[in-house]
Design a protein that fits this description.
Helices cover about 30% and strands about 25% of the residues. The chain has about 160 residues and is α/β, with parallel strands linked by helices. The two termini are about 15 Å apart.
Length: about 160
Amino acid sequence: MEKALVVIDIQNDITKNYKEIIDNINRSIDWAVKNNIHVVYIRHYNLSAGTRTFKPNTPGSELVSDLKIVSDHIFIKSKGNALTSEEFANFITENQIGEFYITGADAVACVKSTTYNLRKADYQVNVLSDCITSYDKKKIDEMLHYYESKGCKLMSLNDLLDS
């Protein structure tokens, strides 16, 4: 069974809170490379009329400059759930990925939807608790309990590095 580290929505238009976790995300990317684990980047495009953030082909939709890019596995989604990207779903199938390590922005939106739907599809999901953030950081603990209630395993970056 193959594994993948998934970096969700670490883009220029995301909450400034990503700065607090970017070093941890980059360290998790180093871990994945060292362990021959696929590194996947998910970018959000907001296709709603009148929106000002995550607009396709704008600087705001680009991955942040301080994120390590180690693969060309960059997939676009326009809904919260990363599995709605056909290219990402096909990548999972083609590479026989069965276990995921989740990092990224907005714990109450896209990270939540993606973890929920991965578990619903019966994948093994590990959420790196110190590699996620949110616009409202007070909700992160609540989200960690939610992920666990859906069958995700919570682990810290140190747990990962020690495994």
